[in-house]
Amino acid sequence: MQQELSVSYKRIWLIAYPIIIGSIAQNVINVTDTAFLGRLGEVALGGGAIGGLFYLSIVMLGWGFGIGTQIVVARRFGEGAVRAIGRTVEHGLLFLLGLALAILLLVLAFKDDFLRLIISSDEVRYTSIDFVNYRIWGIFFAHANFIFRALYIGIGKTKVITLTTLVMVVINIFLDYSLIFGHFGFPEMGVSGAALASVVAEISCTIVFLVFTYAKLPVNDYRLFRFKLFSSKLLVRLLKVSVPMMFQNFFSFAVWFVFFLLIEKMGESELAVSNIIRSVYVVLLIPIMGFASATNSLVSYVIGKGYQNQVFRVITKTSVISVLGVTAIVAVCSLFPKQLLMVYTTNSHLIELGVPAIRVISVSAVLLALAFVLFSGVSGTGKTNVSLFIEMLVLFLYLILTYVLASVLRAEVHVVWSVEIFYGFFMSLLSYLYLKSGRWKGENV
User: Fold this and answer.
1) DSSP string over 277-293
2) What is the largest CA-CA distance in the chain?
3) Domain definitions of the chain by residue range
């Protein structure tokens, strides 16, 4: 019975690999955007980076709520309460669409003043505003996609995520090439074209999720999309789990946004190369995010089945696969850093700045392969308030160290990026200590 409860390497892999493949496809979008914008120059690259991070920082509120919903769906699935899954998904979708509308109105009203306050370069600021003007309209579809991901990861049927992200990639690459440079009769929009392409790609993802759900999932069994009864009690339960995840993800990306603002003060070249490093880094994180999502869902599932004693076994085995997978990818990147950077730019100065930074993020990626699995184990237990505390503490120290290196010591850009090593180490340590304490046992979701 316990073997069936997904403690085997095979079961972990079967849940994680579609998420990983989907993440690979999704991150092709990031690589493509960065590679194309790199051909437009340092200002376009830097402006697109800050505009993109501004959007991501905001949309991470929805992502966090989606993870909280995923935890609840996985717990209900483990308990065998499949009819409750539909109502959970419905309430999550309604909340996120309302949140998307509120965010849209705030961004439209205040984005210009906010970006003017924090970006010193006029050219970079104008480019960032142009990007956000288009990108923000995708937030409704991004939020809908988060709920669909929560549903499918929560019930362990993750292959659809591969399908939806492949569709996103094909559409985004075609529209990036067409709209950034003005090919195939499309207008030449530059950075704005990259933002618009991403919005259309998100819309296509939502459409595929909807079609797949009605074609392949037993909608009636799950009581999906009936929208008959609103339960404030259910919404409060969702918010109890999700709000710490919302703030955790928001602050995580907001701090990374501040990280790039501090680098922007170092110069346009440092900002441009950091955007390239960010793109490479995100690719290195692909398997990590897949195994982290699997850990989150599996931990909640086995607790729902009443097998709390298997939680550490799931986390340990997932950590092994995650670390080995990332180490293999990192080895290739470390051997060929120049060739990797030349995918993004032919500027020899940027390549020279980027080589040591590639080696720094290679080390931090291995640490994060362990850290994110342990950390997802904490949130998977339902103790999302604890995971929020861990994240906030580490991010506070991370931000102080970044400021000292970038603004006080005026360190080189690759030295500033070494704060990621600090982040991975302390995230691993604090998450492990909490899980080992056993204080998470008995948490109801």
Assistant:
1) HHHHHHHHTHHHHHHHH
2) 63
3) 3-437
Section 187-216 average pLDDT: 92
CA-nearest of 293, 315, 289, 287 to 6 is 315
Average pLDDT, the chain: 85
Residue of 189 and 26 predicted with greater confidence: 189
Cα–Cα dist 44/128, whole Å: 8
Alpha helices in 80-190 (DSSP H): 83-118, 122-135, 139-154, 159-181
pTM of this structure: 0.77
Q: CA–CA separation, 147 vs 160, rounded Å?
A: 13
**Within a 10 A sphere around the Cβ of 430, how many other Cβ atoms?**
21
Is 70 exceeded by the pLDDT of residue 227? yes
Q: How far is CA 42 from CA 25, 127, 361, in A?
A: 26, 11, 21
User: What tokens appear for 278 in the block?
Assistant: 């960010």
**Of the candidates 217, 219, 244, 235, the residue with the CA atom closest to the CA atom of residue 95:** 235
Q: What is the DSSP string of 80-106?
A: T-THHHHHHHHHHHHHHHHHHHHHHHH
Count of Cβ atoms closer than 10 Å to residue 196 Cβ: 23
- What's the rounded Cα separation, in Å, for the pair 296 and 313? 13
Closest CA to 167 of 209, 214, 205: 205
Dig out the tokens for 350 from the structure. 């940027």
Contacts of 3 (CB under 8 A, 6+ apart): none
Q: Return the higher-pLDDT residue of 2 and 397.
A: 397
Q: Is the pLDDT of residue 1 over 50?
A: no
Question: Can you point out the beta strands (E) in 151-291?
Answer: none
Spatial contact of 410 and 351, defined as CB atoms under 8 Å apart: no
Of how many residues is the chain composed?
Answer: 445
Rounded Cα distance, 151 and 162, in Å = 14
- Integer Cα distance of 36 and 34 in angstroms: 6
C-alpha 112 chain-centroid distance? 25
pLDDT digits (tens, 9 = 90+) for 142-165: 999 999 999 998 888 878 888 888
